[in-house]
Amino acid sequence: KMAGLIQTQPTSSTAIQTLERIGAHSHIRGLGLDEHLQPKSGPAQGLIGQKQARRAAGIVVEMVKSSKIAGRAILMAGPPSSGKTAIGMAMSQTLGPDVPFVMLSSSEVFSLEMSKTEALTQAFRKAIGVRIKEEAEVLEGEVVEIIVDRSLTGATKTGKLTLKTTDMETIYDLGSKMIDSLSKEKITAGDVVSIDKSSGRISKIGRSYTRARDYDAGGAETKFVACPEGELQHRRSITHTVTLHEIDVINSRTQGFLALFAGDTGEIKPELRQQIDGKVEEWKEEGKAEVIPGVLFIDEVHMLDIECFSFLNRALESEMAPLVIMASNRGITRIRGTRFRSPHGIPIDLLDRALIVSTKKYESQDIEEILKLRAQEEDVAVSSEALSVLTRIGSETSLRYAINLITTSHLACRRRKGDQVEVGDVKRVYGLFLDEQRSVTYLSEHSKEFMSEEDYESGIAAD
Ligand code: ADP
Ligand code: ADP
C-alpha cells in the first residue's frame, strides 16, 4: 500500500509554478488599511479608492483569521473593472504569506476535459495550502573532484564525487540523475555545494576562496566562500508549502508530477484524495504540517448552474474549505439549469450564506490614479496629455481596457524610439485594438460573417 509513501515534492529540481492570470494585478500588495481597518488615503499597498468595499474586505479577513467564517462565502457585486478581483487578491495577501489565491472563471467549469464537480473540486484544492516541515539530510562541502564513467553505448553513466570540509574528505557514488544535475548546474572542482540527500537536489553556494586565483574563476558575479568546517553531513529542518491539488497530482499514479507542468491533469480518483486528506490530518496532529486555507475567487458566478451551486453549498461545509469569493455584475437573472430567477443568478440558499460586498464604478480621478500606478508598475513613462486621454478611454469604455492600452501604446512608443508615451501612440493602438463595446458593435454589424447566434447562445447563454 502507498499509505506511508505520499509524496509532497516532485522529484525534480524544477520548482512548481502555478501560472495564474494575475499579471494585471501585480501592483496589488494588500488592502491598504490602517490599524483600525480604515482605508488609508492615496495609493496604499497598490489600492486606490473603493473605500467601503476595502473596509468590508478588511472585516472579512479578520473574521477568517479568528475562524468565524466557516460555511460562509463572500459575494462581490459591482460593475466590470471595479476592482472585485483586485480586492479579492488583496485579501489573500492580507491573510498572510504563502496564502494561495486561485481564480476560476465560471466558464472554465464547463470544459470538456472533466466533469463540473471535478473542475470545482480541483479549484477548491488548489486554494488550500499545506505547509510541511521536514527534516532533511544535506551534504555541504567543497568539490574536490568529479569523475564520470560512460558505458560504451553512452546510455548509462556512473561516477564518483569527492567532497571535503576543512576537517574531512569523502567519496560518494553518483547515479546518472545526479550526474545530469551536476552538469546542469555547471558544478566543477572548487565549487562549494549543498546537496539534499533525499531529492538529490544540488545547489551551488559559491566558489572556494582557495580557488580565487584560478584563471577560470569566472566573472565579477562569482561569489567566493570559505570551505565549510566540520562534518560533511547535516540535518536541516526545511519547510515548503504545496497545495492539496499539487499533492493529489504528484501522487496520482496515472499522471505523475509532469501533468502539473502540462496543466492537463484529468480526473483524480476520490479514493486518492481521501487517502491524502487522511495523511494531511495525521501530519497535522504530529505537528509536521499546517493547513493554510486560501482564497478561491469565482468570477462571473451567474454562469454556474444549479449543480455547481449545490456543490458549492456542500463544499463550504467542509472543514478544509478556502474562503470562497464569488463575483458578479448581474442583477436579477435566471439560475442556470432552472426556470427560476434570483439576484445574480444565485440560488437563495447560497445567497443566504453570502456576505455581500459591493464595489462602485470609479470616478475619473480614481481611474487616473490607477492608470498612473499601472504605468509605474510596467515601467512606462506617460505624458500628462496621454494620461488624460487614457483616463477618458477608461471612463468611457473600461478600466481594464485602458490598462491594456498602456502596454500596447508603450510598444508603439518604442517602435518610433520615443521615451514617453504620447497621445499619438495611444491613438494608434486605440485604432488597432477594439474595446469590448466597439467589438460587440462590430460583431453585430458583421454577425453573418462570423458564427450564428445559436452557436453563441448554446456556449455561454445566461438567460
Ligand atoms: P473586476 O474584477 O471588478 O472586473 P479588476 O479587479 O480586474 O475588476 O480591475 C481591473 C484592473 O484595475 C485590474 O488590473 C486591477 O488590478 C485594477 N484595479 C481595480 N481597482 C483598483 C484599485 N482600487 N486600486 C488599484 N488598482 C485597481
Ligand atoms: P480565420 O482564422 O479568419 O478563419 P485564417 O487565418 O485561417 O482565417 O485564414 C485562412 C487562410 O488564408 C490561411 O491559410 C491563412 O494563412 C491565409 N491568410 C489569411 N489572411 C492572410 C493574410 N493577410 N496574408 C497571408 N495569408 C493569409
Main pleated-sheet profile: 8 strands, mixed
Ions, cofactors and other ligands present here are:
adenosine-5'-diphosphate
Number of strands: 15
Overall pLDDT? 84
Assign the structural class, choosing from mainly alpha, mainly beta, alpha/beta, alpha+beta, or little secondary structure.
alpha/beta
Taking all Cα atoms into account, the compactness measure Rg is 27 Å
Beta-strand percent range: 15-25%
How many DSSP helices? 15
Low-confidence stretches: 10-21, 257-262, 450-463
The percent range for helix content is 25-40%
Task: State the end-to-end distance.
Answer: 50 Å
Instruction: Tell the overall outline.
Output: globular
Order of helices and strands: HEHEHEEEHEEEEHHHEEHEEEHEHHHHHH
Can you tell me about this structure?
By secondary structure, the chain is of the alpha/beta class. The protein contains 15 helices and 15 strands. The chain has helices at 51-65, 84-95, 116-126, 176-184, 244-251, 258-262, 270-285, 306-317, 348-353, 364-377, 384-396, 399-415, 423-432, 436-445, 453-460, and strands spanning 73-77, 101-105, 128-150, 157-164, 169-174, 191-196, 202-208, 224-225, 233-243, 289-293, 295-299, 323-328, 332-334, 341-343, 354-358. The strands form 3 sheets. Strands 3, 4, 5, 6, 7, 8, 9 and 10 form an 8-stranded mixed sheet that branches. β3 (128-150) and β4 form a beta hairpin. α3 (116-126) packs parallel to α8. The longest helix is centred in the C-terminal third of the chain and has 17 residues, at 399-415. The radius of gyration is 27 Å and the shape is globular. It starts with 50 loop residues before the first helix and ends with a helix. One adenosine-5'-diphosphate is lined by residues 24-25, 28, 46-50, 78, 80-86, 327, 370, 373, 399-400, 403. One adenosine-5'-diphosphate (ADP) binds at residues 24-25, 28, 46-50, 78, 80-86, 327, 370, 373, 399-400, 403.
